[in-house]
User: What shape does this take?
Amino acid sequence: MNTKRNVQEQFGKHANRYVTSTTHATGEDLQKMVEWLQPQKIEKVLDIATGGGHVAHALAPHVKSIVVSDLTKPMLQAAANFLETHDNVDAVLADAEELPFLDESFDIVTCRIAAHHFPNPDRFIQEVARVLKAGGAFVLIDNVSSEHHKVADFYNTFEKKRDCSHQRALPISEWKTLMNHSHFQIQKQSLRKKTLPYHEWVSRMIEDEIEREEIHQMMVGAEQEIKEYFQMKVKENRLLSFAIDEWMVLCTKE
Assistant: This one.
């Protein structure tokens, strides 16, 4: 429970920053998601952990209705304000691991850049399978860790230092195992390097300059192979940007 309280506190404080965050508001994945799903006007959608509401903003013009859900009330309110121009969007406060919806309620379920905050990703996938209709589509987009433990540990460590609500970015192999157990069939997938501007990334969650500098020193002081993996751009010993792995996958429920 403390873990989820951390999520609420962290995102409650910084809710509006996620609406305007370039990392979340833009990205080729939003357009690709629409292309992959080919949404129809008869379909009902659930967007889990909606954050700033960017997925709903992309899908709302193409579907019958969309429910945006989030664990954090201020975040959900910020998303609802952002989405007020759409008349087919409803906002529901909800835990991704215990969704307050009936079985097989939705034609499409989405979750973008959020699952690394969930303490029980297995339960999350089970809940997606439960509320999704047979034959329905599920799109997951999230930061993933390397299959190599050393690189994965470094990534999850610096993410946790920046954001105490971060749980763990899973490697793709773990996600595939969870999806297989819940009878999802992968139809399409893509993996890309996502470049993050360091200052915006760290400032979104940390206001204390000393804490920011600790993370900065950890990253610029990393071994060369780590720096290369994360494509760190350093100028005059200051980190300008780095890149993480983002996986996008479209599944259908058997």
